[in-house]
Structures are given as structure tokens and as C-alpha cells.
Amino acid sequence: MTETPESKNIASEETQRDWKRDWMGYRPEIKVLDCTVRDGGLMNDHYFSDDVVRSVYQACVEAGIDYMELGYKASKKLFSPDEYGTWKFCSEDDIRRIVGENESGLKLSVMADAERTDYHNDILPKEQSVLDMVRVATYIHQIPSAVDIIKDAADKGYETTCNIMAISTAQESQIRNALDVLANTPVGTIYVVDSFGSLYLEQIREFTLMYLEYAKDTGKEVGIHTHNNQQLAYANTIEALILGANRLDGSMAGLGRGAGNCPMELLLGFLHNPKFKVRPILRCIRDYIEPLKDQLNWGFAIPYMITGQFNQHPRAAMKFMDGEDNKDVVAFFDSIIVED
């Protein structure tokens, strides 16, 4: 059959319709995780009141969100309970004080940092816990330790993810080696993580397609976790979603470390799943999250933009913004150039 300009146009239109169905329609594979308490806890050493955590939990239940991340399972040998709040450790008693037996459809998760979690003792068998999922956070050089935690959690009956941090600073060969290892573990989801809020859409596209390549034929999902240093957290999340990432992180009003995360209220507003409700999120933001603004300095700000543009950890920006001379962004910019 001879291809005519008309047939080319028809094919193009059909391709566009298929593409639109992929991302504009209801996609039941998509699962949303709220990381407000966990990532936000990095701004206050995890000292959230029970009222705040309970309100986030209730909002997640009412909004139809799939997972809520409560905090970390940090080793008390490395982190003193005298210096950190309840949600740095997420004991079963503390979690149950908030959620009881969690008789809702919301699944609960915690994060376990590679080499910073006493997982053999602090992560109980699933039948003894109200938790559903363990998310393992790791840098490239810690992958062997991360694999041990993944295997332990899976053997105990939990869903698992692996969040490879700071991939913007790693070589492609290192990332591919890590993905090759993870593809042969029981991990359920592998997350693209923009730790420093430095990645642009083109880079998110490349990473997401790379991760999907390794997840293909393994039954694993790909997730996306972004930071808002360059006001791209939401856009980057949507880009990964369109390409096929089915596990999406967000937080209420973007509350998270430094510039914060993809705002949950934006993400739910974009998705076309009728089970998601934005109003409970807005109520929680109004009553509990926005009042925290006076004490927690999160959200887009020029110092966070600068560290994002220079692909650096936001700790320098956080220190600058907490200091007395926190208005001279030119001086901060110059200091980052010297360090870079």
C-alpha cells in the first residue's frame, strides 16, 4: 500500500489519540504515596506532634491516597532518641497510637536508610506490624547493604522499594550496574530520585526510560521522587508519569526537605482517577501544614535554586537560610561558586 500524505496524517492522529489515552485517561496501575511526614521530618528532626501526623493520615485515607510514609526506621545506636523525634524511629507502639490497626485502604510505609538501620531487630515480621511497605534509600556505593535490607524485608512479608539517591552525581555506568543488581532482587519498585532538585525534564526522561528498561519483564514498577529547587518537582513527576512511571511521590503543600517535594494537591488534581479527592488534602494543609510555615522554612527559595543549579546537596542553603545574614543571596551564590 502506497503511503500518502493523507495516510500519514491519519497515522499521526491515531498515534496522538493512543498517546493521550495513555496519560490523560484513568490508569489504574498508578499508586500515589504521601511523604509529608517522612520528608518533612528532615526540616524539624522529626518532631511532629501526634495531631499533625494523625491529620495527615486521616487526609490520606479520605483522599484515596494509596500509601503514607510515616518516617524512618533509624538505628538508635547511630541516632539518639534524645536528639530526634518519634518519626525518626517509627516504633510499632507510636504508629499504632496514631492509626490503631489501620482498618482503612491506606497502606503504611517507612524508610530504611542503607547502613543506618538496625533492620534485623527494628523491622518486625509483617504479621507483627501494622506497616505494609519498607522503602530502602541508598547511595550507589551502598547498594550491597541496600540489597540485604530489601531481601530481609521481603522475607518478612513486606512490599519493598529502592530509592537510589543523588543519581544526578553518579555516572551512567554506575547507575546501570546498580539497576542490574536490583533487577535480580525481590524489590517491587525502583525509584528515580532527584535528591538535589537539579534535574531537568530531558534528564528525567532519560533516567525514567533507563529504569523502565531494567524493570521490563521483571514485574517491577518504576517510581519518581522529586525536589522543587528549580520549581520542577511537579513537572518532572508528570514527565515520568507520562513515560510509564506508576509510583508517584508527593507531599501536602510540598512539605519536605529544603525546597520540598511535588505538591500532593497538584498531583491529585492532574490525575484522572475518580477515587482521588483533593478537598481533604486542602483541609489538612489549611489546618495543620500551613501553620508550620512559621517554624519550618521549606519551599522554593533562591538559595535552594542555587544549590539545585549547581547540583549540590541543599544543606548549605538550609544553613544559610537559618542564619542571621540570610538575605544576601549574592554572597551565598559566590560561596557556592567557590565550593563548586
Content-based structural category? alpha/beta
Mean pLDDT: 93
Report the span from N to C terminus. Answer: 59 Å
H/E element string? Answer: HEHHEHEHEHEHEHEHEHHHHH
Number of helix segments?
Answer: 14
Fraction of residues in helix? 40-55%
Q: How would you name the CATH homologous superfamily of the largest domain? A: Aldolase class I
Count of structural domains: 2
- What is the global morphology? globular
E-strand count = 8
Radius of gyration, in Å, reads: 20 Å
Largest sheet, strands/sense/barrel: 8 strands, parallel, barrel
So, CATH architecture of the largest domain?
Answer: Alpha-Beta Barrel
CATH top-level class of the largest domain: Alpha Beta
Could you say what the CATH topology of the largest domain is called?
TIM Barrel
Can you describe what's shown?
It contains 14 helices and eight strands. Strand 7, helix 9 (233-243) and strand 8 form a beta-alpha-beta unit. The chain folds into two domains: 27-294, Alpha-Beta Barrel (TIM Barrel); 302-339, no CATH class. An eight-stranded parallel beta barrel has the order 1-2-3-4-5-6-7-8, surrounded by five helices. The chain is an alpha/beta fold. The radius of gyration is 20 Å and the shape is globular. Helices cover 43% and strands 13% of the residues.
